[in-house]
Here is the input.
Amino acid sequence: MTTEAAGRERWVCPDSALRTGGWLTTSDHKRIAIMTMVTALVLFFGMGALALVMRAQLAQPDLHIVSASVYNQLFTIHGSGMIYLVLTPFAMAFGMYLVPLQIGAPAIAAPRIAMLGFWLYLLGAVAILTGFAVLGGAASSGWTAYVPLSDSVYSPGHGEALWIFGTFCAATGMICMAATILWTAIFKRGPTMTMLRLPIFTWSMIATVLMVLGAFPSLLAALTLLSIGRMDPSVFTQNVWNVGYQHLFWFYGHPVVYVMFFPFVGAVAEVLSTFAGRPFAGYKPTVLSLLAFAALSMSVWGHHMFTTGQASDGYYQLTSTLLTVPAGIEYFGMLATLIGARLRFPVPMLFALAFIPQFLIGGLTGIMVSTPALDYHFQDSYFVVAHFHYTLIGGSLFGFFAGFYFWFPKVTGAMLREGLGKLHFWLLVVGTNVTFGPMFASGILGMPRRVATYYGVPGLGTLNLISSIGAAILGMSMIAFAFNVYVSLAFRRPSGPDPWSGHTLEWATSSPPPPLNFTPEWPFVRVTSFTPLLDRRLRAARAEQAKIQAVP
Amino acid sequence: MPFRTEFDHTLLFESVLAGAVFVTVGGLLAFALLRYRAAGRASASQETEHPRLEAGFAAALLVIALGIVFATRGAMAADNRVPSNIGVTVRVTGYQWCWRFDYSGTPVTVTASCLTGHYPTLVVPSSEPVRIETTSQDVIHSFWIPAFRFKMDAFPRHVSSFVITAPHPGVWLGHCAEFCGEDHAFMAFHFKAVPAAAFRSWLTAREAGAFGASG
Amino acid sequence: MMERISGPDVVAAWGIANGALLAILIGYGENVFAVALYASSATLIEVIALVTWWVMRRHPAWAARSPAPTRTRASALAAAVVALIGVGLVWDRWMALPALYPLAALLADRDGPLRRLWRVA
Here is the structure.
């Protein structure tokens, strides 16, 4: 008890009312995270709307709702936006908000760098979207911006330049945020919080930010190469730079898939274990597998280049297929947590449970596209589009919503509505499968991706019509979500500090937490494992039991 | 070269495997959801570590992963194998937004205007290995014949090649698979296989036409 | 031993895992460009591990210090500089000139990093 009190003095600032600045000059990690999240949510709806226009165009063969040039801008900005401006910021916002709370830190390390990250991200978003307002329109060479297509000869106009600048800023912003999260997790843990008592979500963030720091600089290098090439187009008359750009891009482009995925795996693990009423099964194997997963994911980028005929296909197939080992261990942990549990089914749990089979479809088809003999056909077809939407929606987005519904009460102090949440959930399940399931078949039939229209092959019209109907269902699910957030904030139902009987430290403090997270009124809890609050409840229950037995 | 058979075998193999995994995970999930609902249970098990089981499981996964790589390596090797009896070589050049086919060793060139709906036809002898060399005049394209389950990117200032054999006479639709700018969606072609004799006479006639045109 | 593992250990181990994968890549005879790319990334991770390890050993109190600066006006000023430079890069070079204003404000900012460094020195 005395050591606990002495420890507390060390990390809880005595002046708990210390100001953290207004919103725009805040140094509070929670506010930085909220601003990032709100920006990303607004963009999420915008990018989704672009996708609905695309699905309208593709609902039948040979439709011309928008011109080919506009269609190309739509899919470019939809892809760039969702990856650079929505899912990566979602991931960083989760980490920015939760890591300091989960490890018992009063603040994020280097808040000015973290806030600079937010500003650069916002600036990047504004720059990329400004493309729609300039002559020639927004960037239209895909989120990958392969050279020489994206150079100044084939993509003149300011849209492409704005895209390069915006992407550079947004990626730099994410690096800034990732660096502060890593520094915080390493140096600002509470006194009894050792590395092996970190919650699974925090571990998933550590793996995530390591990938950001190791891989995002490669995107900056690719964009720099592209900028040089736009000033001097003769650069891209050399094959070495054309292929080199793809290496630089995919060295970033594959790990980013896991950056957009890991935090949500962590969220799913927290949600599953909370509503199973027990610690996540296999803590150490899961932590090790997260780190191994992240390391392997740095080595698989060449599987995007099988059809270039200029990469070592054998190696990239080997490392890509080996990803099944850590992924399998994580699945083992999830199922082992559920078996023997005492399961409750509020909305966050529904999203977390659906994540298991939905992401599995993305993962299993991932083995297929990383097999060269299959990828020679699947590459750049709708099969790939189906595959990565299953990973990014079936995996990332289901995990994101699990976390969003789970931590929303902590962030706002209000509960999200259960009924609307269930409507949102079921529409999302149906919409995801109706939209992306048929795309596997479109791809096998020979529909290339990134086409403004299609014709010729029998069956494509029907499959695409089903996909478009599914997209409308996805749109409705998002409306239910938006309405739920609005209703829950406008007519608040207070959540209290710990509405779910949580396991980790963020549930020990108030909702929303005070500026410096833990105060004498909301003290830090002694950490004995990666589920300190569960341990405390069990200790209390045992003490209660002992008391009852002591009274004969 | 035997792209389609290799593709079909590999896809069948991996689909069966994927299906088995999906059914297993789905079954365990359904079992847990039915058996361990809060309503019927006083408390949850607090046991978390199963080191032996986890280690065995990881080892099994490793064996399966290496098994997949090993089992599908043959397919990749077969796709990339170059037979010795190649008779015809065609240089395929992609450009914004159509294709040009140059028959090596002859002055024969085939092209068309994709944007007006006239797709060029790549004529090859059936049942005979044909070398296709892909390259580009401007940006990156990709030469894809979905029915053959194969594509190869076409890079500017770089030549990639593969060998393809049409199993029987016929016409198949091909398409550019790498996004190449505004009218990418319209960049298609026909791949037409004819009996060897018919191919020779077609080539001779085109050759005469080409000389006639230039002379 | 596992229980005493530190943050920098994790970073270093992760970099080494990448190094092992890189060694296999070299074994497959991948081109120099790809190998150099992966090597530079693994090196960057090891540099981060070394820096954090050194800070943990030499300046643990500084690294854990809380609270950090209470306001982040400097971040907004720095972003404004970047935004105006971006306008110059995308349209015309001279349009970046107004970036000098937020830059001056950033240098003069009471909570800015420069003034803090000055005070330390």
Observations:
- Chain B has a mean pLDDT of 91.
